[in-house]
Amino acid sequence: MANFNKVLLIGNLTKDPELRYTPQGTAVVNLRLAVNRKYKDKNQELKEETCFLTAVVWNKQAETCNQYLHKGSPIFIEGRLQSRSWEGTDGQKKTTIDVRAERVQFLGSAKDGAGASRGVDEGAAPAEVPSEGREEVKPESVSWNEEDNVA
Hints:
With 151 residues, the chain is mainly β. The protein has helices at residues 59-68, 146-149; strands at residues 7-13, 18-21, 27-40, 46-58, 74-87, 93-106, 118-121. Strand 3 and strand 4 (46-58) form a beta hairpin. Residues 115-120, 123-141 and 143-151 have low confidence and may be disordered.
């Protein structure tokens, strides 16, 4: 059976980026995004719905997003869906599905701070982080529990 997990989104940030670092020094940022859909219902009335979601961006791309993006910035995200689970403070298991961004394209103008059509690929060079006593970490091996990853 074939499998395919690819997401393409264009939307606007609903909050400023939330940059943090894992204990190993890997940059990670959450981008809260609103994606709008306009359509006509069966009575031909124009309707609009909004989907709110989180895109998770890693490494140098995360730092670049944090530097140039802000609430309201229009962006294009290419990535994949990824589920994560954690135990909440109430002891209940919680699960969510986020977009694991592989590519982020800034759509705003330079005066908006995002730069017109500037993009950053996940394969970009990692951020310069002191390597003393730190081992190389793959994003997939880092806990998705935000409390575990904040340094």
